[in-house]
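Figure caption, in words: inputs first, then the predicted bound structure.
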Amino acid sequence: MIRVEKLGENEVFILETDKTSYVFMADKGGSLVQLYYGARLGLCDREEAHVEADAVRRAVLAMMPKYVNPNGCSIIMDNDEPNKCIDDLRLEMSSRGKGDMREAFVELLYDDGSRTSDFRYKGYRLSEEREVPCGLPSAYDDAGADRDFSLVVELADRNSGAVMELVYNVYCECDCITRFARIINNDSSVIIVKRLMSAQLDLDMGAAKVVSFHGDWAREMNKSELVLEGGKYVSDSSTGFSSNKANPFIMLCGLETSEESGECYAANLIYSGNHRECVEIGAHCKTRLLTGINPDFFEWRLEAGESFCSPEAVLTYSDTGYQGISENMHGFVRSHIVRGKWKKKERPILINSWEAMYFDISERKLLQLAKTAAGVGIELFVLDDGWFGKRNSDTTSLGDWYDNKEKLPNGIKGLSEKIRKLGLGFGIWVEPEMVSEDSDLYREHPDWAVAIPEKAHALGRNQMLLDLSRREVQDYIIESMSDVFRRGSVSYVKWDMNRHMSDYYSRALSAERQGEFAHRYILGLYRVLGELTERFPNVLFEACASGGNRFDLGMLCFMPQIWASDNTDAVSRANIQNGYSYGYPQSVIGAHVSGCPNHQTLRITPLETRFNIASAGILGYECNLCDMSSDELSQIKEQIRLYKEWRKVLQFGQLYRLGSGGRKGSMYDNDAVCWEILSWDRKKAVGITMQSLVLPNFSHRSFRTKGLCETAEYHFYNRKLKYDIHRMGDLINTSVPVHIKQNSVTHNIISKFVKLDGEIEDFSLLGSILNKSGVQLCQSYAGTGFNPQTAIYQDFDSRLYMIEAVGD
Ligand code: GLA
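Bound structure (alpha-D-galactopyranose present):
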């Protein structure tokens, strides 16, 4: 809901969602001053709008800063407002050179060399149609025409003919507000945009805790919490892409805010290129959050009459800690970012050939893998890297998207037909934004690769980027990919991108426009993705960038899921997926069960744990099923049966990060994760726990749910599992009459027939009991005895708990 009120010389803008309000005003001098962002004030309640005008006026008067005396050496912008220092105000938008000394929202370079802008309020419009940033993906609302449309606030630059429009959209049910800015050059001379951010939040919160997410290849999304008392903190990417180094999702909260309580703000950007999030505590203790395109490696030349839009940013607020933020952001991503046929559709369980055979593929081996996969219930076969050109390693052939007939004599067409006959869908891996120097494409079009002419260029994973800022390159990708997708009649595409940007340059741009290259690349990418997803509306696209090197809302506008990390080790994954869970729902996170020892860490984890962690995402398998024992295959078959039964809850339910049974934050907290995923009707939930290392003599665990219907009766149970006797090592000798040497032939033979029974958890309880007291779980083995009710809960062991409402 949006409401605009004229109060004296001030224009007040009120944006309200179901649980939040965002209020700012244009003051007499034309500055846009932020008044409030937080829990809902109810200033927009329409039926009472008429009678409430006076209440709104009084509320705004109370919130307004009082300009009484100037501050010492501060800059006074206008002579007729001698007491107003903008450095001490909370601003909706700020620029450099007029007295606000903090990080700026906009920076322009004029043709006389000056850089001081002076944007003042000009007016507003309630646009009839949702306004979106030109050429960029954006949020959408398919809820119908009764929604408010965009609020557009216009500002004019007193120092030039530039006009700025700040565009706002409100997403009520998930308590999100989006913002972006548009600059229009109505001047007769060129203006260089040095920066144009997407959102600025100036909050009255003093010291703040900043929560951001960092990492690198194979270790994405580590949560960083930092207390900022003064100065600036920057989380950014200048890799060319949103990056695995710093995700654009960021939270800002009070020092006491925790998982479940306290005030928290969050921002994310609908953009896949370089981004910058800056938190600054100014000298007057106002806390500023800015998010937008990273001004590093960026500038944009605006000729007279041209305009430029920043990407859309999404903002949200919760007074129920990080959990509230996650709920808002998950809802937003599910309803207003992900689109198309797969938006609400359960995603297929896939088998991917990469970790199973890397480049060493052949039609025979692939079909064997597919056959085994079909036998255990897998639904989709994904042919990963190695199928095209002369691709036997990562040094060659990117760009040559024709079949490698040595490996696939019948091409992807023949292979896919055979795969479909096995009852599986056929999916394919491509990396269309790249070119290998050793490729026909590069030999034909060396100028299409990103490099500075006559200068040595850098490689990343032995490859170069194609210059997607060029229309002919975009067209080549669209046509070559359309041909691949048609040839293979694919139902799934894994769209990979495996390096950072370097040697920023496009031969198609003039010298003075080279600063536009990185952003133009992303605009080109979006054109390609828009065209292909429109041509192939039924295909399920999964984005990938060496795992999570481009895990962002921009990609999610085209592709409903993203491969979260190349690291498939369950222990690493638990942390990575937990990191993503703050800002992204499980329905967008690709997660696979892989071989053991794990290929990235060489760690050994139980198959059950690998499944449990992957089941909190879009499940796939990425291992050589053909080499697995019949025991393992039947375990996998059972996992898949279970996942299918609970898939809707697991993929689309609400995830809660729970505290580990009474030990959270203590030195005894050894739970790597403790999650619950709850269905929307609250009739079903799944609990997922995984422990890091065993704590000796600490065998009691409990599980407490969240969100169950307090008055409904639930059946809480675990999976009835059997464990290999090798797990007890030579302790077998404590229960057999003859001595058995560990790992001897006898030991191995016995292990085929005798299994250890897993513990049984079985409760029928009211939701209130499960939510409040929780259940005490079976005691874990602790070195002092063993019986069938003892849980074998070793290093990296994990459990799934199923929770189902009984009756109606
Ligand atoms: C990247 C991807 C992997 C795999 C390989 C293939 O690393 O992230 O999943 O597809 O490329 O080369």
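The first helix runs from residue 49 to 63.
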